[in-house]
Amino acid sequence: MICLRCDAAWPVETYAAGCPRCASEGHASNLKLVYADRSRGIRLPETLELGEGGTRCVELPTLAQTMKVGRLTAKLEWCNPTGSHKDRMSARLIARALSCNVPLVVAASSGNGGLSIAAYAARAGLPTEIAVTAALAPSYRRAIAAHGARLVEAPDSLGRWEHLAHRVTEGAFAATNYRLPAIGTDPFGIEGYKTLSAELSGSERPDIIVVPSSRGDLLSGLRLGFEEIGGIPPRLIAVEPFPRLARVMAGEDYRLRYEGHTAQVSTAGETVTFQALAALRATGGLAVPVDDTAARQAQAALAACGLHAELSAAAGLTALEAMARDGCLAGRHVTLVLTGSGLRDPGAHDLDPRPHTDERPQAAAPPAMPGFLPPRTETSVQQRDNG
Ligand SMILES: [Zn+2]
């Protein structure tokens, strides 16, 4: 296992604080898995399949034309077994938990992740606790309980992490981040997102991938996957509900907390991770905040094309509109990762009721991005941290 920040190598274990060297210096950095066989192609740890991955990518020609994007596709991650991209990660996390002979799997979740972990843990026969808040939608609550997982209600978002930290001291395997500063999910889980890179490679490889993001597990897995496959990686655009990663990209410390409230529950939270920052830097990417009003308009525009995405995923369309405004994406292929459906999304119950004569999101797009898609630069060790 190698640190994403300092490149130190460590034996394969579970590292609660991420890279031990970075932790001793007051940093918080995730590790990645490396393999003895470095031949080309994706290498993956053991999995516990429920049929995850292999989701369809559909064309959105009318939106592409309206937004002056060369080609626009949407990767339908809600076609995974429990309805979100998280299944790619859960399959590996639960396989890892099994191999570690843990007595319990714990996860903090706002919905998609907890349901996915509960399903895969049920398949493996592992006891599971999902820490949630009162805000969890009843549909998720019922589905998680149906898999036999125990729901633990915390007073707030960070209270969930405290519960996980306590369980980890008792020997539980944490299937989500629970640390402050945040690190991200166990590297074995993030490996699962390399399958998405593989599916988006070949002749269909997009130039840009728009990814809903909070702690950057998906961003980091995509980046690592494309690095393993080789060639020029697509630029990764992180969409977030309020400026967090965007502020870190502008020079603030990734270890700080960035307050904000949002109905985009799948990407809520106050933290940023080094792995998210590193993924954007490595791919010449960008973080784009999209507020809830704009995200709802984008959700309606996508729904008019037959795709009812969760709010945080629909926000990607608004981010794209802002980036494409000056026609600079006319020759580019952009893929939106639609992480989950709007059907069970509590933020989705307020679809913009106004009739749409134009497919584009109509208002509150983020300001145009000066320096959008800057030239790629090699990241030196000295440049690696903010703070
Ligand atoms: Zn390190």
Order of helices and strands: EHEEHEHEHEHEHEHHEHEHHEHHE
Bound molecules: zinc ion
Shape: globular
Regions with little confidence, pLDDT below 50 for 5+ residues: 351-372, 374-384
Largest sheet, order of strands side by side? 3-4-12-9-10-11
Rg over CA atoms, rounded to whole Å, is 19 Å
CATH topology of the largest domain, what is it called? Rossmann fold
Helical content class: 25-40%
The CATH class assignment of the largest domain is: Alpha Beta
The fraction of residues in strands falls at 5-15%
Instruction: Name the average pLDDT.
Output: 89
User: Span between N and C termini?
Assistant: 24 Å
E-strand count: 12
Domain count, please report it: 2
Quaternary structure type: single chain
CATH architecture of the largest domain: 3-Layer(aba) Sandwich
Which structural category do the helix and sheet elements fall into?
Answer: alpha/beta
Number of helices: 13
The largest pleated sheet is described as: 6 strands, mixed
